[in-house]
Amino acid sequence: MTAKNKVETRGFETEAKQLLHLMIHSLYSNREIFLRELISNASDAADKLRFEALSTPGLLEATPELKVQIDCDSEKGVISVSDNGIGMNRAEVISHLGTIAKSGTANFLETLSGDQQKDSQLIGQFGVGFYSAFIVSDEVEVLTRKAGDKEDQAVLWKSSGEADYSIEAAVKPERGTTVTLHLKKEAVEFAEPYRLRGIVKKYADHISIPVLMEKAETPQEQESDGEKAEAASTEKEYETVNMAKALWTRPRKELKADEYKEFYKHVSHDFEEPLEWSHNQVEGKLEYTSLLYVPSRAPFDLWNRDAARGLKLYVQRVFIMDDAEQFLPLYLRFIKGIVDSNDISLNVSREILQKDPVVDSMRSALTKRALGMLQKLRKKDSEKYTEFWKEFGQVLKEGPAEDFANKEKVAGLLQFTTTASEGDEQDRGLTEYVSAMAEDQDKIYFLVADSLKAARTSPHLEIFRKKGIEVILMYDRIDEWLMGYLQDFDGKQLQDIARGELDLGKLENKEDKAKQKKVEKELKGLLERAKDVLGDKVQEVRLTHRLTDSPACLAVGEHDMGEQMRKIMQASGQEVPASKPIFELNPDHPLVEKLDSEADEERFGDLIGVLFDQAALAEGRELDDPGEYSRRMNKLLLELCQ
Ligand code: ADP
């Protein structure tokens, strides 16, 4: 081909363009991170080459030692970051540096507000990557040659980070990638060797390959021997400036919090610090090291089914793959980190991972480890845990349905609002609920409603308030579904207070029971009349003792689908008929007493109709015939005025 020196100019993909623009403008206050991203990419490139070389050793040619080298020219304001990793061919350069491959990018961009401060946080969640080079550069050049390709098959990519980039064929004697930054005037300080060294050290210590920089001159050398200094400038001497040891292989005692935090940013491409981590070196039947992190913030694609998730997998310190999702269940998909196994084969593939019993054992151990880390965080720092819960609580709620074996553990991590936390929004967990239970209480009571407000004003709570029994208030869309998988906790049954007949167990006293039996007999006729009026609208009409202030309420049959669940299914396109409610009347309410003695059948019908509709409204149900409700109400109001 004669494409050799033809320079082609191509436009960035729209999304890449938008992202670039945003990044340059919103990350201004944290410019030095560009170096972290470039070193991170170089180290990934080395990891990938080492992996490829397992099956194709020839790729390493005569230079099997993988490294990163950083050079600078403070006068010209130029920095270059070179690696001898996997490199890229032309098609890869176009696809990796000209487009953004992440799914959901367009949606992400739509969520941005234009407010720089807010957006810079969001962009952190998205991950900044290579484009961060443009925060400090007027122009960026990438000269790269894929391992295995010939010298003259290299590619030179150039861009000023605006609308387009150019790409041309080039020659490069060594495989790998050199990224050269021509710094903006206001960013030339980064090309000062001293400054640069400081930043490199900060970001590169945990990287497993050596990062080389030109040897720093000692002050004596500078003064005493001019000739020597000159010689050194023609024949540069390099030294390794980082520790060059994979962080997770170092003993825990030796590692500082800051090192863990930096490493997190490298593996997760997250801009923010992690909330918590857990580092474990496991020996015995299985040998592996894991380093799991809980991010501070949910990534933009947490709810995207196709989003990449999982841990970075290493086998005997060799990088194998990103996003190995087999090591943690889906409801822990927010956990980031690495796992390094001594038992998995080096030539493992995703397909093999799925079937490997070693992976199964590791998965169950890592799941326990992750849950344990959350449990510890909950105990140790409730403020941090509240932060975690806000970001990831919804995902964790998928746990009991997905992971039967750890149901109890996951349940212990859930947070709820309860009637005991009214006023302040301090959430409580099931453990706290259970330890605050009265001696005679043998169940955990909960109520599901459309909103917190609807839950708080629900008539079902009346008797519980009167008796001072705590009730968990659930109003999240998935709560009813979740509770379908949680029948008990700590040996105590979880009871929906709007489902079935009220059963307070030992909390009810005998005298009350006897009195209730008597009333039930007396009001039998009233119940039959009410059922005749309501007909098909209800399953049953019965008396209840769960109310103290309201005249009536609706209950759900023991095995019927609740309203929330029905709404979820309807929203997902499934046609689910509403289950018929049970209409319950409060025999102690004056209105109910009046009703019993109402001889006028039409008036009786109106009153029952209104009570029924009101009870439905209190449950957040829609009325079958709102017009009829208003007509009846107006008729009754008019009577009042006469
Ligand atoms: P990320 O690293 O999050 O995937 P980047 O924007 O930093 O995103 O980089 C995009 C892609 O470009 C990388 O996934 C990688 O395939 C490629 N790339 C970047 N830098 C290098 C490099 N030094 N060597 C080889 N490939 C690279």
Bound molecules: adenosine-5'-diphosphate
How many alpha or pi helices? 25
Which bin fits the share of residues in helices?
Answer: 25-40%
Number of strands: 22
What is the CATH topology assignment of the largest domain? Heat Shock Protein 90
Structural class: alpha+beta
Main sheet summary: 9 strands, mixed
Strand content: 15-25%
Overall average pLDDT = 89
Choose one word for the global shape.
elongated
**Uncertain spans:** none
Number of domains: 4
- Based on the structure given, which CATH architecture of the largest domain is correct? 2-Layer Sandwich
| Radius of gyration computed on alpha carbons | 33 Å
> For this structure, what is the CATH homologous superfamily of the largest domain?
Histidine kinase-like ATPase, C-terminal domain
Strand line-up across the major sheet = 1-6-5-4-7-3-2-8-9
Our measurement of the CA-to-CA distance between the termini, rounded to an integer number of angstroms, reads 99 Å
CATH class of the largest domain: Alpha Beta
What can you see in these coordinates?
- This protein has 642 residues and is of the alpha+beta class.
- The chain folds into 4 domains: 3-218 and 234-243, Heat Shock Protein 90; 248-385, Ribosomal Protein S5, domain 2 (2-Layer Sandwich); 414-507, Rossmann fold (3-Layer(aba) Sandwich); 510-641, Heat shock protein 90, C-terminal domain (Four Helix Bundle (Hemerythrin (Met), subunit A)), CATH 1.20.120.790.
- 40% of the residues lie in helices and 18% in strands.
- The protein is built from 25 helices and 22 strands.
- Strands 1-6-5-4-7-3-2-8-9 form a 9-stranded mixed β-sheet. Strands 10-11-14-12-13 form a 5-stranded mixed β-sheet, with helices on both faces. A 5-stranded mixed β-sheet has the order 15-17-16-19-18.
- A hairpin with a 4-residue loop joins β2 (68-73) and β3.
- α1 (14-26) packs across α5 and α2 packs across α7 (193-204).
- Bound molecules: adenosine-5'-diphosphate.
- Adenosine-5'-diphosphate binds at residues 37, 41-42, 45, 83, 85-88, 96-97, 127, 129-131, 177, 269.
- Adenosine-5'-diphosphate is lined by residues 37, 41-42, 45, 83, 85-88, 96-97, 127, 129-131, 177, 269.
